[in-house]
Amino acid sequence: MPLPTGNQSGNLVRGRLLQPLCAVLAAATVAGGLVTGPTAGWRAVVPMMVAVLGALAVAGRRDRVPIVPTAVVVAVASALGTLFGDPPVQRQSTGLVTLLEIGATLLLVCLVARYAGARAAVVLCAVLGVLASTVILRLQVPPTLLEAAAQCTFFALGAVAACAVGGYLRGLEGRRLRSVHEARRHQRLQLARDLHDFVAHDVSAIVVLAQAAQVVGGDHPEKVMPILSQIETAGQQALRSMDRTVHMLDDGAGTAAPAAGEGKTRAYGLPDIADVVDRFRSAGRSEVRLDMDLTPEQIAQVPREVASTAHRIVVEALTNIRRHAAATPLVSVSVTLGPEVAEPVLTVSVTNSPPSITEPGGLLGDGGRRGGGTGLTGLAERVGALGGSLEYGGHGDGGWRVTAVLPPR
């Protein structure tokens, strides 16, 4: 059973705990207001009830209660209560009602700072903060203006604190949303890289076979049908590669491929390298040698991220050979595990000999030098992130070699 996400957990808590609690408090507020109205004065009780009910409505049913209109109604009720309230008197019930209104207004300030739009939040927080700091004047007006200002300033500190709390929570949510956006962007880029790196390997094979069919079609038409069959196989493999890569979004764990006998997916690994080499061999004229004599126990020692990166290196190296050195007579692929028992080092090497001068490189080799994808530079960054190293460059007299050393993590 999948675990609920952060938003789902928040909605669950709000639906099962917060909303019933707010409903109980709202009912208690109405009942208490009706009881204390005759003694505390309705001009003090009504603004209190409006403020408490408004704050509870926004807190419990924020998805259905518009926060800005609710805050405006509370502000108007509070302002009217301060301007046209009963003459200031020292009553215990009136003082309690006033403190409840101040607390509800400060809660609403926090909610406005957290959820309202930026411009509306600034205006409403300022207005509600002023009203919350002046509600106390309903009980007693100080003898001097300076004392009244000091008293209101003291209560305004509560509004500042409520606004700061709401703003802080707003900032946390903004950072969370930016992190989610960046993670999704990274996932899309990773998907694009996977589509390029894996599909380009099969598409380049299709191009090579199509060019071969054009060359032999005129003189040896009987050889075209086997080539067309290979093109069909390579095209189907390209489609499967795209399907596997898209499944990565469902698993969220690197490049994926279908698991045997299951509808779920698994990561590309060392066993898939043999299939890549076989398809490269069948689509070209080069002799391909694979040195990967690893036991299942040794393969199990290699972490999934390292094995997936090794597979990616072989795919990229063979694709580059097909593009830029299609006439090379010999390609060697080596995947070896070091003799260390505790932390065996995985070494991946792909080497091609100099292209034969007696055979043309083919149209892809001549005109296929184009940019795109992650390339060896992107793979070098990926290998470096795993703590390994990737080196590539000329080898011998016109050959090329790609070597990666991948230590375990």
From TrEMBL:
It catalyses: ATP + protein L-histidine = ADP + protein N-phospho-L-histidine. GO terms for molecular function: ATP binding; phosphorelay sensor kinase activity; protein dimerization activity. Residues 352-373 are annotated as: Disordered. Residues 362-373 have a biased composition (Gly residues). Its EC number is 2.7.13.3. Residues 188-250 form the Signal transduction histidine kinase subgroup 3 dimerisation and phosphoacceptor domain. This is histidine kinase. It comes from Streptomyces griseicoloratus.
